[in-house]
Amino acid sequence: MPVARLEPGRSVNLGDIKEGDDVYFVCYITSNPSIYKLFWIHEGQELHHNVSAGVIMSNQSLVLQRVSRAASGQYSCVASNIQGDGHSNPQLLRVKYAPVCRHKQMVYLGASKYEQISLTCDLDAYPTPSHFRWTFNNSGESVDVPQEHIVAGGWRSTVTYAPNTDLDYGTLLCWGLNSVGVQRRPCVFHVFPADRPDPVHNCTVHVSMAAVNVVCMAGFDGGLPQTFILELYESSHGRLLANSTSTVPRFSVEGLEAGMALQGVVYSFNAKGRGEEVALSALTLTHLPEKHTAAVKPSPGPAPPTVGHRAHTTTVAVLVGVAAGALLVVVIVCVAVRVRGRAGVGAPAGSLAKTNPETSLKDSNLRQDENPDVIPQSASQQWY
């Protein structure tokens, strides 16, 4: 079975490796018969050759380029021959790096005036930070927080702070320092005015036989997210009927008894506390409102004609009769005229006067003289 031994490279000091440095290991192997495989392990996971990721495997060497804090951990090599696998001793790599924020880079915190708050700056670093620095910034100035207000230990630093005026609201920044260097990007804490929420207003209550609906207008939230509560009680015994929570001031409670007297309160709360209560009262209906059908009054008929109306109607009738008679007379006259005209045109042929032959001949000659260009043609004349 192969015997493997892992050593860092000759120029490598595993106790002083910082982010961005190069590291390499050498796996020394004694084997008979020869090995047919060599692979590398980092924190229990097999490594693979990946030049773009800075992991290079060559013969019996492992090269790690531009290491980051993620490269920290234990490394080992494993050599295999036909008799089995030989595991090397582990080597621990600890990559040093300057402090960074452990959690969110930016935090928002609401505070009321004269309220004492604690801001905690948690850092991640190797080695442990040796010094912390805090500054306060607002629109007008930037000042260092006095060291007597700073408590530091290990990777954590805490500042106690109380805004007394509007100018005390602003941004606090935290940096850490260790042997590698100063933290590049500070941890940021925005402190803004905040207080308990204002009460709701303009509440309306809608009731039915078995349900109550409450709708209110939200008050100022105090600068923080608020939640609304409805507590509903039976008036006679003070029994709690509902305790509803909502992100908006709207509530609906069902399953109530008809004719029940109710008392309730609506309020809101945020991280700074509970706002003032607004009292409500209601009475569920004992029965549903009845629907009434109104009697429909018939439309009035036409009014009887008055004396003046009758006289006006009679006058109109007389005028219409006269006009119709005149029109009839005109039609009769026209028909008679047309009948007489037709009788003259259609007289019998025997009643016509006899025609004088001489007169006819003269008329014929006269018509011929009126057309001198027409030459009479005899029956024997021919044209060639």
UniProtKB/TrEMBL annotation:
Highest taxon above the source species: Eukaryota
Domain Ig-like, first and last residues per copy: 2-94
Keywords: Membrane, Transmembrane, Transmembrane helix
Pfam families recorded: Ig_3
Annotated region described as Disordered, given as residue ranges: 346-384
Compositional bias of kind Basic and acidic residues: 360-370
InterPro entries cross-referenced by the UniProt entry: FN3_sf, Ig-like_dom, Ig-like_dom_sf, Ig-like_fold, Ig_sub, Ig_sub2
Transmembrane residue ranges: 316-337
Full protein name: Ig-like domain-containing protein
